[in-house]
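Q: What does the assembled structure look like for these inputs?
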Amino acid sequence: MAKKLNTIGVITTGGDAPGMNPAIRAVVRTAAFYGVKTYGVEKGWFGAINDHIRELTAHSVSGIIHHGGTFLHTKRCPEFKDKNNRQKALANFKKYGIEGMVVIGGDGSMRASMALIDDFKFPINVVPASIDNDIPGTDFTIGFDTAVNTAMEAIDKIRDTADSHERLFVIEVMGRHNGFIAADVALVCGAEIVIIPEVKHNIDAIAAKISKGRQRGKESFIVVVAEGAESGVSVRDKLAKRLPDMDIRVSVLGHIQRGGSPSAFSRELAGKLGATAAELLINGKYGQLVGTKSDKVCPVPLNKVNRLVKKVEMEQLRIAEMLSS
Ligand code: F6P
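A:
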């Protein structure tokens, strides 16, 4: 029989994502339901190492369900790669009697959690939360849907001015290593071109496609580029050389994609995944990435997915391209 836990921790790590707050709420309220004590670790792994830990009650998480960001705060923490620092974090957890942790975060958080599990067999369940959607073992991450909607609203507005001025806009979206946001917004905004890190792009071919479009009477164009493929400014400069009579502007959407009130979908995911991750942990089942598969909550062993790479659906790019011509 798996040992039940009486005290757990919850932490948000890496880049924030809209939906982290409802995920924290779900963990804390689930623990309260089972009579289990919860501690919140503030400022991500930095707070774990430096003892920024406080007790959270069901009441502490009132009024946060609709807020973007994370009320526990987060920090990039390269120091956590050092085993001595992980040891310090563990000592702090022990000080409060924390027997296991729900980690809410992205791919870096998953790797850091694996290190804690491998080093100290510390019980952890990970809830995938990142605007990038690049975590293997889950169809969606918390925050991705909100980020796509934020980018979509921004691009729709840019489309209005692009049409009025008959301009080409290069729009840079987030995605350091992947093009999930870019591929989704290209489809939902009808972008003429999408550039993502996973697919080699050819600026001459892109310029030729735009020229063809102009010959057919198209007057404005949206080129969506994921930051990890090339910067928007660089794409603009290269296109300007090849299309000298085209009025070209660039817009970098940046961190607005990370903020804002979580969408219904991000909140729903946060509620289901946070609650399941906490329930499993409390009941002695851990080492899981608690994500979704075909709309169902689906925990998978972390050590089976942490080395996999999640890929953008090429079929989606094909359809986006076909519909934008
Ligand atoms: O959270 C992931 C991400 O949004 C990437 O898409 C982006 O490159 C990065 O975070 C930016 O991180 P920071 O805010 O630390 O500069």
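The first strand starts at residue 7 and ends at 12.
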